[in-house]
Fold this sequence. Notes:
Blueprint: E1 13-17, H1 27-36, E2 43-47, H2 53-59, E3 65-69, H3 86-92, E4 96-99, H4 102-107, H5 112-124, E5 128-133, H6 137-141, H7 145-156, E6 166-170, H8 184-197, E7 205-208, H9 216-220, E8 227-230, H10 237-248
Parallel strand pairs: 1-2, 1-8, 2-3, 3-4, 4-5, 5-6, 6-7, 7-8
Helix pairs in contact: 1-10, 5-7, 7-8
Amino acid sequence: MPTNPAASPPRKLAAGNWKMNGLSAQLAEARALADAFPAPGVGVLLCPPATLLATMAQATAGSAIGLGGQDCHEAEKGAHTGDISAAMLADAGASHVILGHSERRADHGETSEQVAAKLRAAWGAELVGIVCLGETAEERAAGRTLGVVGAQLAGSLAEGATAANTVIAYEPVWAIGSGQTPTAEQIAEVHGFLRAQSPDPAISLLYGGSVNPGNAAAIFAIPGVDGALVGGASLKAVDFGAIVTALQTA
C-alpha cells in the first residue's frame, strides 16, 4: 500500500476544514498561523478550497503547516467534469484529503463504499485520508449512534488502513456548525468504540463538530480524543491557533 512517510500524521492532529470559504485574501490567515507555529509539536493541517491549495503551499512554505484537500474522485483521471483527483491534490501541495464528510454524504449522496474507493485513490497518490463518520440527531435520539458509526467505519475503510495512511474523524452531524457539542461521556463512548473497531489501534481519532477556542481544551481532555477536525474556527488564525495551543498542552 503506497504511503508517503513524510505525510504520515502524528497522533495529535488539528485539522482545519475551510469548506466553501476563502478567497486569496484568506491566505494571510494561513501565513499568520504558519508564523505562529513554526514547529508546533503536533500536526497542524489546513484544508482550503482546491483553488487555494497551490498558492497556500507557497504561503506556508518552510513552516510545519500541512495542507489537505476536501474531497477527491476515486479515478486517477478521466471524463469527470468538476471533480478533482487525488493526484491533482498532491500535485498542488496536499498531503491529506478529507473523505466522507457528512456534507458530502448528505448533499451528494456519497455512500461508504464510494468513500472507501476514494480512500484507496488517496493512498495511490500518497495522501493520508481523513475519513469522517457521524450520526444525525434522529439516529442519536433513537439510540442508534454506535450502530450508525460502526457501519460507516466498516464500509468506509478500505483494506490496508493504518495509522500511516488514515485518520478517522467522528463528527456528529447534529453538532456541525450548530454550536452544540455532545457531552464528554458521549464523545468518550464513541471514540472508545471506534478505537476498538479500528483495524489499527494507533490510528488518530479526531472529534469534529462546533470545536472552538472555548471548548477545545475540555474536548482534548476526553480519553481517546487525539485532536480535532475544525470548521468555522479554523478560518481565523487567532481562533485556530488557540485550538492548536490547547492540543499542544493536552
